[in-house]
Design brief:
By secondary structure, the protein is of the alpha/beta class. It has eight helices and eight strands; from the N terminus they run βαββαββαβαααβαβα. It has an eight-stranded mixed β-sheet, with helices on both faces. α1 packs antiparallel against α2 and α4 packs across α7. The structure holds guanosine-5'-triphosphate and magnesium ion. The site of magnesium ion has 5 residues, from α1.
Length: about 210
């Protein structure tokens, strides 16, 4: 049940917030999700967009622990077409002590292999802070996980990097680094919190329909 586009990124990068902001930008009021739990059980979930933030997104890392596919209705000529955008559990280095989190990360990795298109959400502000504070060697090591995600993205029909949290200090520096480092791919500066950049995001989503 992988969506046509998979949303990946480090824990806390803003993947879930991105999905919810996209739904708001497309003027949805009610969200329809297809959820695939790590135990393989699939279920449908429905909620109002107005209550989704409180239910699904959080400051705490590892909030998302299952694959949740948002069904988006996109107008195409006289009819509508459904685009699927799948939110996934965030990745991080190392072996997490919690088994649920480990299973969820494994599920994300499997989905990454199967996905046709990838939206890679990066916390540009965290990246900017890291670039300012670290030696070159430490930067290289800390970016290893995102580098792996870049490499996986290159194998896909469509790969878009979303430089998120552009409303925060240092995000510009993070965005600039991404533009230079992943020059072959679209890098779209966004704020899932404020909604900036979503006209361009929408064009990328449209192309998947
Ligand atoms: N300032 C700011 N905060 C944001 C933005 N996007 C997300 N956040 C915050 O970042 C935190 C993590 O957001 P989530 O959307 O839950 O992140 P996630 O990538 O889904 O996290 P996991 O599911 O745990 O991997 C929350 O506190 C959000 O409010 C943004 O554009 N700007
Ligand atoms: Mg999440």
């Amino acid at each position: 049940m992988n969506g046509e586009t998979l949303v990946i990124g480090r824990v806390n990068a803003g993947k879930t917030s991105f999905c919810l902001r996209l739904a708001r930008h497309l003027k949805l009021r009610e969200l329809n999700w297809l959820v695939e739990r790590t135990d393989g059980v699939r279920e449908k979930r429905r909620m109002l967009l107005s209550e989704a933030d409180a239910i699904l997104s959080s400051d705490e890392p590892n909030r998302t622990r299952e694959m949740q596919t948002l069904l988006l209705s996109v107008p195409r000529g006289k009819s509508d077409q459904v685009v699927r955008v799948t939110d996934s559990a965030g990745l991080m280095e190392g072996l997490h002590e919690n088994e649920d989190v480990r299973r969820a990360m494994a599920q994300t990795l499997r989905a990454m292999i199967a996905a046709r298109g990838i939206f890679h959400v990066v916390d540009a502000a965290a990246l900017g802070r890291m670039l300012a504070g670290q030696s070159k060697l430490a930067q290289a090591r800390m970016n290893a996980l995102d580098e792996q995600m870049f490499a996986m993205g290159q194998m896909k029909d469509r790969y878009v990097i979303l430089a998120n949290k552009m409303d925060l200090p240092m995000a510009r520096e993070g965005y600039r680094w991404l533009k230079a480092h992943a020059a072959k791919y679209p890098v779209v500066p966004i704020s899932a919190r404020d909604g900036t950049g979503f006209n361009e995001v929408r064009r990328h989503v449209w192309r998947l329909a």
